[in-house]
Specification:
The chain is mostly helical and about 180 residues long. The protein has seven helices and two strands, in the order H-H-H-E-E-H-H-H-H. Strands 1-2 form a two-stranded antiparallel ribbon. A hairpin with a 2-residue loop joins strand 1 and strand 2. The longest helix has about 40 residues.
């Protein structure tokens, strides 16, 4: 997937300025696709040149005009074509998993702080996802089609984090057990 596709989806959900789009990436789209603010602005300029997005200047008091982006017909066509393309299953590069295997050749206890750090990070992300779910989807029975699809993606992220935490707990238990046997 190109960043262009993630931007098109976000702008179809709600037109906005580059700043607003970057904030959405930080808040929600970043759950599954990350981009820096500079990357977003650079791609927006290219998409504007290619005719994928339309730009409307909105006057602001005592500030320069704000550019509000929305998806133009060529952008919607490009997104539709991309949507119909097959997606290959993602290949996972997991450096921590390789380190865990490498721990067999060193003191497994040395890896415990690193695994704990990963666990804390994933626990914090899960907490953010759950807070966002309560805030954005308080009544799942009242969701429109767009919201249902947003929610199902979020639920996938929630389950991924829960699975990752369970796995990291298993890794920690194994490392602790092996570390005790090497003392």
């Amino acid at each position: 997937m190109a960043l262009e596709h993630a931007i098109l989806v976000s702008l179809l959900e709600q037109p906005g300025s580059g700043y607003e789009l970057a904030r959405r990436f930080d808040r929600s789209i970043g759950r599954f696709w990350t981009a820096t603010h500079q990357q977003i602005y650079r791609v927006l300029r290219r998409m504007e040149t290619d005719g994928w997005v339309a730009v409307e200047a909105v006057a602001q008091d005592a500030r320069p005009d704000k550019k509000v982006y929305s998806v133009a017909a060529p952008g919607r066509s490009a997104l539709g074509a991309w949507l119909r393309e097959p997606v290959e299953p993602e290949t996972v590069r997991h450096e921590l998993a390789v380190k865990i295997r490498a721990a067999a050749f060193e003191d497994p206890g040395e890896l415990i702080p690193e695994v704990e750090r990963h666990r804390e990070s994933h626990a914090a992300l899960l907490a953010r996802y759950l807070t966002g779910e309560q805030r954005d989807f308080p009544d799942p029975s009242a969701l429109d089609a767009q919201q249902q699809l947003q929610h199902v993606v979020l639920r996938g992220g929630i389950e991924y984090e829960r699975m990752t935490l369970a796995w990291l707990d298993d890794v920690l238990a194994t490392l602790h057990r092996l570390h005790r046997h090497t003392d």
